[in-house]
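Archive transcription. Copying these from loose printouts into the bound notebook so they stop getting lost. Printout 1 of 2:
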Amino acid sequence: MGHRRMYNPTNGNGGGIVAYYGTKRKVFISFHQKDRAEVDAFIDRWATRESVFIPKALGVSDNDDFIDSGNPEYVMSQIRAKYLGDSTVTIVLVGQCTHSRRYVDWEIKASLTQGEDPPNGLMGIILPSCGATAYLPPRLEENWSKGHVNCYARYWVAPSSVTELGSWIEDAFQARTTRADLIKNSQKMMKYNAECRVCGKTH
């Protein structure tokens, strides 16, 4: 896809904290382990305390026996069965180095896979430590456009209210049927972690 760029996510317009009365969707959280503290804080606030969604936050690791398989279809099926499970939306929490992580790429690819079951809705949320800009994981970037024009995925700054986050999740859930034709998922899986464009090295 050529030179990667840093992107400003779309700003939301949420207000103060209010009770959330919408449907609680099951959400798979994709992230880089380096950002675990921020990820835990996000889940604690929005899932545990505010009850906006039901989280699934355990992802692919070096301990999985399928990571060395040369069969992409097998790997995708294992990720969907073992981690995505019955989740319907995938949120990628984007930190400084998330774009370079192969397991994040695999989780996004599995989320976008269309087969017997609908794909997961897909959205990215930038973590506070990144400020207002971050490099996107390539597969998320391919499914997003500035202004959310003719694209499957969405990309946001941190939500400011339960209503705001809930509406984002619901939009992603509905996209599984209303925008599925916009999914781009033909890129091969990342075989290795890429060089981080921020740190200039492969972690």
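Printout 2 of 2:
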Amino acid sequence: MPLGCDKSHDTGRNRDETRIATAFDAADKLTDTEWRPHIKTIIQVQRRVLTHNAATGLWNRSTETAFYVSNTTLGATPAATAVRAHWGIENTSHYSRDVTFGEDRSRIRTNPGVFARLRSFAFNILKANKTSTISQDRYRAAEPPLDVGERSGQLRPYVRPVARRSPLAIMGVRRRVRHQSVWRARGNMTLNGIA
């Protein structure tokens, strides 16, 4: 027997979404299980989404049913609000961090939690000082500082001095040509495994 039902409808960005959230009391369903003290409400959310395809002019229909559990007794309206709030966090935080900082592509295997905290710290600073998009703000923050001109008094961009030697020359790597171009370090060590 449902505790309640909540229906909501949203449109925007070529999407027409209808959500029906239904809350069920879990007490009678979990009487003889170890889950009884932990689960009070089972929430069912049915989503029907129509997405407009601009190329064909047709609407694509998709349906999805998701189930959630709660350790407190909830009605359908607070449950639907909680589910929508969770997706708000996913869309604003996790998706933005992945797009801006490429977290899913990160290959850091040693102490990944430290780098995740650094990315979170940087993301929070960018979000607090947001002027346009976070990606544009990130690139703007990475720009070199402006330097004051000595004679004209006008601002000019700071230009980093050019190194006289290339980074490979500084590391002791020299270019050696045989049958093909091979980068070779001093001694017997090679950078690409070709002697």
